[in-house]
Specification:
The structure is a single chain. By secondary structure, the chain is an alpha+beta fold. Helices cover 48% and strands 13% of the residues. It is built from ten helices and eight strands. Strand 4 and strand 5 form a beta hairpin. Helix 3 packs antiparallel against helix 7 and helix 4 runs antiparallel to helix 6. The radius of gyration is 22 Å and the shape is globular.
């Protein structure tokens, strides 16, 4: 329990889950550099995740899953990202959304049950494709240009989705589409057919192995039963904490790399390693402040979400704050780690430069910083009327 990453393990069950995630992370870390270099999707990582039972962690126990809490999800995602940020972020969308579907029950029960059984038996995964080039992130409120036209038995969906994480491996996914006849938007569960094409557009600075390509739908038929109501209980969006957990895991890996470097690197003009230098110790202290602050907030917020079920909608400002602090602090930690290591941190043969690129992607995952600040300000201003 002296390792910082273990500070929030509360019992033996969580310790066992953590060790399993760490084993996977160690394996993924050996493959991460090649997938990053190639921008290739790590299919073998997802085979390992499926065989380890990771894909069914948030499936309710009544359907054969583990039914883990949000707190436990955060703990595992942080560890997985320690080994490979791309894999952690990608699988986080799956296990996070399954938790979201379980808590909101916004899907028809039969459709949700079918997904759960398929995840448990076949390793099926799910994600929602909502972003588009013209409308941007759906969190900003843009109207999708993807359209759903009614037929006698269902819908024909046509459009193009961007940032479609996990697209190379999914056989089903959710898309948002505009219905002209209703002047409104709805979600549809789409099964992959010949009318679905993956265009490999994902060539980015960081998170290069998430498979977030464009998905083109050309008159894809969707049965009328696959229109998802979108109704259900408001859970506050707690499942999105898989995102900050991922970036803190990357920051933790950078921190540990810098500590090992500081302990072992001894220039020939020094009698001790650079860890003895006050300037290096100062930088390490700064890393600790950023990490410990962000982790304390993240785990406290996750635990509150687990415990305060009735109060979950009111936790949205705190949930956004946890993401804001975690992603921004993680960037600072990686930057400090690179300052400690020096010019060697820029080498493509070392993982720090990948951490540096990957961690910046957190700024562009929801909720965005501007949204968090707006929600916090709105919550503060609303107190005036109480």
């Amino acid at each position: 329990m002296n390792k910082m990453i273990d500070h929030y393990i509360r019992n033996e069950k969580e310790r066992a889950l953590a060790r399993k995630a760490e084993g996977l992370a160690s394996l993924f870390a050996k493959r991460a550099a090649l997938h990053d270099q190639e921008g290739s999707f790590p299919f073998e990582n997802f085979t390992d995740l499926r065989e380890a039972g990771y894909l069914k962690l948030t499936i309710p126990q009544e359907f054969g899953g583990d039914g883990i809490s949000l707190y436990e999800l955060v703990m595992l995602q942080e560890r997985l990202a320690y080994g490979d940020g791309s894999t952690a972020l990608a699988v986080g969308w799956h296990i996070g959304q399954v938790l979201h579907l379980e808590t909101t029950r916004k899907w028809p029960e039969a459709i949700f049950a079918d997904l759960c059984y398929s995840v448990v038996s076949d390793g099926t995964m799910i994600n929602t494709f909502a972003s588009e080039a013209a409308s941007g992130s759906p969190s900003r409120g843009g109207k999708p240009e993807t359209t759903a036209l009614p037929t006698a038995d269902g819908w024909l969906i046509t459009g193009r989705k961007t940032f479609s994480t996990l697209s190379p491996i999914l056989d089903r996914f959710v898309v948002s589409a505009f219905i002209p006849d209703e002047d409104g938007t709805a979600d549809f569960l789409v099964h992959r057919t010949d009318q679905v094409t993956i265009v490999e557009t994902w060539d980015t600075l960081g998170m290069r192995a998430t498979g977030s390509h464009d998905v083109v739908l050309d008159g894809v038929f969707v049965d009328k039963t696959m229109r998802l109501s979108g109704k259900g209980v408001d859970d506050g969006g707690g499942w999105l904490l898989h995102i900050p957990a991922c970036y803190l895991g990357i920051a933790m890996a950078a921190r540990d790399y810098a500590l090992e470097f500081a302990h072992t690197y001894q220039p020939n003009h020094m009698n001790e390693p650079i860890s003895s230098l006050p300037s290096v110790q100062h930088a390490i202290g700064e890393m600790e402040i950023e990490l410990r602050t962000a982790r304390a907030l993240l785990y406290t917020t996750a635990d509150r979400w687990d415990q305060e079920k009735v109060n979950r909608p009111a936790l949205k400002p705190e949930l956004g704050l946890a993401k804001y602090v975690a992603t921004n602090n993680a960037i600072k930690v990686v930057d400090l780690a690179m300052r400690i290591v020096g010019a060697a941190s820029l080498s493509r043969k070392q993982p720090l430069e990948r951490y540096y690129r990957d961690v910046r992607a957190g700024l562009h995952n929801p909720p965005m910083d501007s949204t968090v600040l707006h929600n916090l300000a709105s919550a503060a201003l609303a107190e005036k009327s109480l």
